Amino acid sequence: TVYEAEVVGLTLAAKLISTERNMKYPASIFVDNQAAIQAGENHYTKSGSYLVEHFRRMTKRLAKNRDNQGQNFHLTLRWIPGHKGVEGNELADAAAKEAAK
């Protein structure tokens, strides 16, 4: 589904963030799917739960690793309106739809 593809996108974004060596600022992932954001932040979800759990485990591990390195890591999921000309959002939306096929 598109929702599951969005959650995979969250996971890939977190993986990309994990490759940054010295993050001096809080990290944000911008998403136009409110259900994916809620699933990433809440402790209970049905649809695509294995994907959501993978995302949660990855971000917890990322935060722990950064904290152990003396970096105060903070990740925020932020909602943005879809199809409103936000740079990169149209490409991400197209990729999510393609992945859902």
TrEMBL record:
All residue ranges annotated as the RNase H type-1 domain in the record: 1-101
Q: Which Pfam families match?
A: RNase_H
Q: Which InterPro entries match?
A: RNaseH-like_sf, RNaseH_domain, RNaseH_sf
- Name the domain of life this protein comes from: Eukaryota
Annotated GO MF terms = nucleic acid binding; RNA-DNA hybrid ribonuclease activity
Annotated protein name in UniProt: RNase H type-1 domain-containing protein
What organism, scientifically named, is this protein from? Suillus luteus UH-Slu-Lm8-n1
